[in-house]
TrEMBL record:
Belongs to the glycosyltransferase 14 family. This is Beta-1,3-galactosyl-O-glycosyl-glycoprotein beta-1,6-N-acetylglucosaminyltransferase 4. Keywords: Glycoprotein, Glycosyltransferase, Membrane, Signal-anchor, Transferase, Transmembrane, Transmembrane helix. InterPro entries: Glyco_trans_14. It comes from the Eukaryota. GO terms for cellular component: Golgi membrane. It is a single-pass type II membrane protein. It is found in: Golgi apparatus membrane. GO terms for molecular function: acetylglucosaminyltransferase activity. It comes from Pleuronectes platessa. Its main location: Golgi. Pathway: Protein modification; protein glycosylation.
Length: 371
């Protein structure tokens, strides 16, 4: 995090960055013992605190198989469980690489049902729901579930994550705020999934057809797609008729994942409820995900040292200190094609922290065996 070293990293970044191809991960995972040893999974040490507090992860991904593997490596513990949902539109090379990856672990699996995921549509929400259903059926009695995408990365070591989540004492952690008039438009009208010319994509498009109010008199809140949810909350959600009706009502809205979770945690009586009487929980107050928006740079946080994509900063190495000191659990977005050094530095820093915290805890090294 020294300014001189940051400057050196920028010079490296100016050179052409060559990303590891999906095919190389597929090739390496064809020999699971070699893959596990070469990537250091056989040296994973687990504290008693981590063993007693297993976590679940839902990863909704569509590209960069090596980046997916690096996220899993940073979070991997034999007691945790990982569900990977890949977009049905993903390349054959990516799908093969992900299938190769999961073949090497007993606690990493592919979602039993997979969606064609389209930006801002119900399919993005459904992908996480598919993983949540599978995770509930697993034998691992995880305490919390966290959803991730392929451009997220942790800012806390595994033992720090457990320590932070234990402090919640069954509460959920996510953004949940009262909607602005602009955000109300996203669920007040019927949206239809339509082709976008020249982009070979589909996107929800607003119609003039007004929607009825949400079922059961539900009061709406808005947030983002990221959550940290307790097992009790997910179990309740999975069996609730109110939740099922609300999901059906949300199917023709714009970006339903940005109101679905934020609204459900405010329902009276749900496990880990955020009472409606409490003030807004903004994205900077919730520790789930640290995202840097271009229009708030120089006001709430320093400028992006990477690049912007749709108003979101893809981080560069100069943001290392800011990312680690802000207090969030994860950050978005990272891309090895933009700045590979920030990802490598975070990997090394989290390993340092894991060893430091485990040095004062009761730890044992568990050798990971391939399937």
């Amino acid at each position: 995090m020294d300014p001189v070293e940051v400057g050196k990293s920028l010079r490296i970044r100016w050179k052409e960055v060559v990303e590891d191809q999906d095919e190389s991960l597929f090739s390496l995972t064809s020999n699971c013992p070699l893959f596990i040893k070469s990537r250091g999974y056989d040296k994973v040490c687990v504290s008693e605190e981590e063993r007693d507090f297993p976590l679940a992860y839902s990863l909704v991904v569509h590209k960069s198989a090596w980046m997916v593997e690096r996220v899993i490596k940073a979070l991997y513990s034999p007691g945790n469980i990982f569900c990977i949902h890949y977009d049905q539109k993903s390349s054959p090379q990516f799908i093969s690489a992900i299938e190769g990856l999961v073949s090497c672990f007993p606690n990493v699996f592919i979602a039993s049902k997979r969606e064609l995921v389209y930006y801002a549509s119900i399919t993005r929400l459904q992908a996480d729901l598919n993983c949540l259903s599978d995770l509930l059926r697993s034998e691992v009695k995880w305490r919390y579930v966290i959803n991730l995408c392929g451009q997220d990365f942790p800012l806390k070591s595994k033992i720090e994550l457990v320590s932070e989540l234990k402090k919640l004492k069954g509460a959920n952690m996510l953004e949940t705020s009262r909607p602005t008039p602009y955000k109300e438009m996203r669920y007040s009208f019927h949206y239809e999934l339509k082709d976008i010319p020249h982009e070979y994509q589909k996107m929800p498009m607003k119609t003039e057809q007004k929607k009825p109010p949400p079922p059961h008199g539900i009061e709406m809140f808005i947030g983002n797609a990221y959550f940290v949810l307790s097992r009790d909350f997910v179990v309740h959600m999975n069996s609730s008729e109110v939740v099922k009706d609300f999901l059906v009502w949300s199917e023709d809205t714009y970006s339903p994942d940005e109101h679905f979770w934020a609204t459900l945690v405010r329902l009276p009586g749900v496990p880990g409820e955020v009472p409606r009487s409490e003030p807004d929980v903004t994205d900077l107050m919730s520790k789930t995900r640290l995202v840097k928006w271009s229009y708030l740079e120089e006001h709430l946080y320093p400028p992006c040292s990477g690049v912007h994509v749709r108003g979101v900063c893809i981080f560069g190495a100069a943001e290392m200190r800011w990312l680690l000191n802000y207090g969030h659990l994860f950050a978005n977005k990272f891309d090895p094609k933009v700045d590979p050094i920030i990802i490598q530095c975070l990997e090394e820093k989290l390993e340092e922290r894991q060893k430091l915290f485990q040095s004062v805890a009761s730890s044992t090294c568990n050798k990971v065996s391939p399937k």
